[in-house]
Design goal:
This protein is of the alpha/beta class and 247 residues long. It is built from seven helices and seven strands, in the order E-H-E-H-E-H-E-H-E-H-E-H-H-E. Strands 3-2-1-4-5-6-7 form a seven-stranded parallel sheet, sandwiched between helices. Helix 5 links the parallel strand 5 and strand 6. Bound molecules: NADPH dihydro-nicotinamide-adenine-dinucleotide phosphate. NADPH dihydro-nicotinamide-adenine-dinucleotide phosphate (NDP) binds next to helix 1. Belongs to the short-chain dehydrogenases/reductases (SDR) family.
Length: 247
């Protein structure tokens, strides 16, 4: 049971959970392919992985653009010969009460957190179906399991990807394609995610919560590593990751 030599595409790899996962997986011998919008951060992370003896490449990727996801998957195949896993992790969380009507932010969350995941799924599905092997990991959230005031649209996108992953799992079983699906439901993880909040009261509340209870993204990275390392016939498909201090 190992991630060694697995080719893993990771979106949202320029910080937080994606960065921590890329570094951990590469340190265990996986070949990681990093996508996000910020080129300098991606370059720095790839340099760091290589300096530690790992294998990594990156491509500037906007998950709202289907062609970018296709190009990222193509890069994995060109560089490393195949693709075993896509980790749909890119996300934004500009939470606010619905009454604030931040409709541009609603649309941005739908574009990144839901359509971005669909674009990732579409980019790998032809290869995964043909090779009858593959794993789709998606970062949902505890806000994809239960409702929180302020998380109306964020939670809607995270509930949506939960359903998507479960349906892919069921259809793969029916179609005998052996595609594994893993949904992650993290709670408060200290990353750059809160930077995307513009609503003052939401930001204050979240900052206070995370400062009090938040844990580092390595906690999620270790779960990703565990899920990828399982044998092909084993689909560990849901993980909730809470800080022990969070109620
Ligand atoms: P970060 O803000 O550190 O990471 C978010 C990542 O998404 C960045 O790499 C960012 O890179 C990328 N991203 C944002 N928009 C796009 C886009 N349009 N195209 C490509 N990449 C994009 O936060 P986290 O690590 O916390 O977030 C990772 C995931 O975890 C998200 O889906 C988030 O919803 C989820 N999550 C996080 C929790 C937490 O408490 N931190 C709890 C539950 C879920 P760039 O800006 O360079 O494009």
């Amino acid at each position: 049971m190992s991630v060694e030599n697995k080719v893993i595409v990771i979106t949202g790899a320029s910080s937080g959970i994606g960065e921590a996962s890329a570094k951990l997986l590469a340190s265990h011998g996986a070949k990681v392919v990093l996508g996000a919008r910020r080129e300098s951060q991606l370059q720095e992370i790839v340099n760091d992985i290589k300096a530690n003896g790992g294998q990594a490449v990156f491509r500037v990727t906007d998950v709202t653009n289907p062609a970018d996801l296709t190009a990222l998957v193509d890069l994995a195949k060109t560089e490393f010969g195949a693709i075993d896993v896509i980790f749909n992790n890119a996300g934004i969380m500009p939470t606010s009460p619905i009454s604030a009507l931040k409709t541009n932010e609603w649309n941005a969350m739908i574009d990144v957190n839901l359509k971005g995941v669909l674009n990732g799924v579409a980019a790998v599905m032809p290869d995964f179906t043909a090779q009858k092997h593959g794993q789709i990991i998606t970062t949902s959230s505890v806000a994809g399991l239960k409702s929180f005031a302020g998380s109306g649209v964020y939670g809607a996108t995270k509930f949506a990807v939960r359903n998507l992953m479960e349906v892919i799992r069921m259809e793969s079983a029916q179609e005998h394609t052996n595609i594994r699906t893993t949904s992650l439901y993290p709670a408060a993880i200290n990353t750059e995610l809160l930077h995307t909040i513009t609503d003052t009261s939401s930001k204050q509340g979240m900052n206070k919560l995370y400062a009090a209870v938040g844990i580092t993204p390595d906690a999620v990275a270790r779960v990703v590593d565990f899920a990828v390392a399982q044998p092909d016939e084993v689909n560990v498909n849901e993980f909730t990751i809470y800080p022990t201090k969070q109620a």
